[in-house]
Amino acid sequence: YSLSINIRQSGGVGSSFSLSMNGLSGKQIKFFIDGIPMDNLGSSLSLNNFPSNLINHIEVYKGVIPVELGADALGGAINIVSNHQLNDYLDFSYSTGSFNTHVLSFLGQHYNKNNGFTAKIASFINYSDNNFTIDNIDTYDNLGNINGTIDNVERFHDAYASNMIKINLGYQNRSFAKKLILGGTFSSNRNEIQHALDPQKPYGGALTKEILNKVSLNYENDQVFEKKLCLKIYGTAFKKYAKLIDTVSKKFYWYKAPENSNTATGEIGPKSLFRIEDESHIFNSLIKYHFTRKQNIVMNYTKNYLSRKGKDPIATSRVPFTDPHKLSKHVLGLSFNSIFFDHSIKTTFFAKYFNMETYGIINAVYKNESDPTKYTPENNFYGKIGGGFAARFQPVQELTIKTSFEKAYRLPEGYEIFGNGNLLLTNLKLIPEESHNYNLGLSYRTTKTNGFKFNFAANGFYRDAKNMIILQAQALFSKYLNKANSKIIGFELDSEYSYKNWKLSANITKQEITEKDQNNIKIRIPNIPLLYGNIRVDYNINSLFNGHSSLNLNWNSRYVDGYPLQSYKLGSKKDRKLIPSQFSQDFETSYSFQKRKYNVSLLISNFTNERLYDNFRIQQPGRAYYVKLRYAIP
Q1: What is the 3-state secondary structure (H, E, C) of 113-130?
Q2: Is the model more confident about 491 or about 574?
Q3: CATH architecture for residues 6-633
Q4: DSSP result, 538-557
């Protein structure tokens, strides 16, 4: 089981999301698929697009990130692990539900046991109108003054569609390679823009489209030097095309018909067919050498390169990214791992080197738009050294004590530095985040006795962070900024109790995240919840109608304490916008039969229809119903 994790999504299906754990959130937590970074892949391949049956399990890393992942995470990582069975299998699912939501997924593999040849395909299609209702929409009189609010207004321009197909061909479990796989991936999405950060001003025509083409090569061999040396090499190259379409010259309203407006502008700004073209490659190599069965050394190198160009055939002014913006990142890691006293003590000592170089264009202050000196190139270089240790002590089988320290760095993403040429602004001055991370935790696990089992875990964390990168709203726009001298302190508690067919689990996270202003006064950082938790109850009935069937019922609840949307530096307390406390509940039931070959499930999310809010106080969907059918062999 995992300690408390909080996921904040800014709308319905396909909307952006932020995951929080261990006092950190957003890009400070890295995402991987089978150990491969998901950097620069775009929104069509984000975590919330993947149907659950394409995922075997999810690994959660907190505190120290293993050198094997080659990450520059500030203190957390999520690794999505797909199915690696060495056999033939087929998995098909379809779900449908509220807001005209449809999710179709397919996963299949052929494996030849004689020669190791493997052919695998994974694909999905997602669609939703996202036409849920929202409240507290301002109304205006003929003079443009606010004269009231209305509730239960339906979102009318928020549809989302995405798809992916991935094909892998190669060999596995052979003398020359444990894995040699050539892969190709195509994905795309279409996302209507209902509004910017402020929902009071709706759009009715603006949308984005994205296409990704990717090839990859994955090699792994653990049979070198009498199985003492393990070698892994991964490389991928891809092109991504992201287009903003903003050509509708109308002003839209939530509560009345649209009106014609300035024909020279779209809804967001000047009319636009702006297209971003990203070229990127990722290279990762890992060497692991076992001195003995209890001591090994690991070296990992990761390179991540991005080049971004921009085009707009109808632009009337300089197009963002006309000159290519470039970002090159390198992470080199080395760790020494040991086991002592019959596995009761495990230690890891590690060092990492981080390198980043950026190139882009900044706007100088000149009045003459045609003056080429108005646009000034800027090149930045950063090199940082980090490191730390992790130790685990297990005095008895049931009890484990863990501690770790790391001087960690996170290099900004291209998205954070360059923006998107539209509502997200460029900030070439962004510098790497850094943090001194301290963690201390313990877990207690009992073995199952007379149908009873109990698990408990507690973890305390302290982060002394500098230059934390936070998204800050600026009217219709937003920009990533560095926040200096942030401190994070908190704890997590997690418990799980099971008895026969019942299981009860609960977790809670309490944290304090502050910075100091120009007067050296400690103030709270906004738009981050400080208290949240979950409670879940599961009930399982095996052999309900025959010996190979199973019925599962579960109730899941989530609580998030209220938190401020705006900085404590701004305005008086009574005028400060707050995101209210919220408590949501979901209910799900699933039935499988014929050895899980056939599965059907029903989900009711937010079944009490609470008003839920998330990033920047954007309202979430109300009560929703979903049905899922799944067929899987073997």
Answers
A1: CCCCEEEEEEEEEEEECC
A2: 491
A3: Beta Barrel (2.40)
A4: EEEEESSSSTT-EEEEEEEE
What confidence score (pLDDT) does residue 600 get? 96
Tell me the domain boundaries of the chain. 6-633
User: How many other CB atoms are found less than 10 A from the CB of residue 371?
Assistant: 10
Q: To the nearest 10°, the Cα dihedral for 175, 181, 182, 187?
A: 180
Residue 112 one-letter amino acid: N
Residue 219 backbone zone (phi > 0: left; psi -120 to 50: alpha; other: beta): beta
Tell me how far apart the alpha carbons of residues 89 and 633 are, in angstroms, rounded to a whole number.
Answer: 5
**Residues 513-570: tens digit of each pLDDT:** 888 777 777 888 887 889 999 999 999 998 877 778 899 999 999 999 988 877 766 5
| Inter-CA distances, 374 with 176, 310, 367, Å | 57, 18, 8
Measured distance CA(28)–CA(6) in Å, rounded: 14
SS3 of 39, please? coil
Distance CA 580, CA 571 (A): 18
CB atoms within 10 A of CB 141: 9
Answer whether 430's CB lies under 8 Å from 414's CB: no
Token pair, residue 156, equals 């009318």
User: Is the Cβ–Cβ distance between 612 and 606 less than 8 Å?
Assistant: yes
List the Cα angle 574/576/580 in 5-degree steps. Answer: 100
What type of residue sits at position 515? E
Q: Mind listing the pLDDT tens digit for each residue in 140-160? A: 888 878 888 999 999 999 999
Note the pLDDT of residue 344.
92
Distance set, CA 580 to CA 98, 568, 614, 616 (Å): 25, 16, 10, 12
Task: State the distance between the two ends of the chain, measured CA to CA, in whole angstroms.
Answer: 26
Strand partners, 466: 434
Q: Calculate the alpha carbon distances from 240 to 47, 84, 164, 281 in Å.
A: 17, 28, 13, 11
Cα–Cα nearest to 612, from 621, 625, 602, 599: 621
Coil vs helix vs strand at 89: strand
| Four-CA torsion 245, 249, 250, 251, nearest 10 degrees | 80
Residue partners of 26: CB distance under 8 A and separation at least 6: 18, 19, 20, 469, 471
**To 5 degrees, how large is the angle CA 45–CA 51–CA 56?**
100
The letter for the amino acid at 219 is: Y
Q: Per-residue DSSP letters for 567-612?
A: -TTSS-GGGS-EEPPEEEEEEEEEEEETTTTEEEEEEEETTT----
User: Residue 163 pairs with which residues in a beta bridge?
Assistant: 125, 188
Whether 435 contacts 478, CB under 8 Å: no
The predicted-structure confidence for 358-370, as pLDDT tens digits, reads as follows 988 876 543 455 5
Measured distance CA(89)–CA(634) in Å, rounded:
6
Task: Quote helix, strand, coil % in the chain, to nearest 5.
Answer: 5, 60, 35
Give the Cα separation of 81 and 78 in Å (integer): 10
Cβ 9 vs Cβ 465: under 8 Å = no
> How far, in Å, are 149, 206, 265, 282 from residue 252 at the CA level?
17, 11, 14, 42
Helix (H, G, I), strand (E, B) or coil at 221: strand
The pLDDT tens digits for 561-578 are 988 877 766 556 665 678
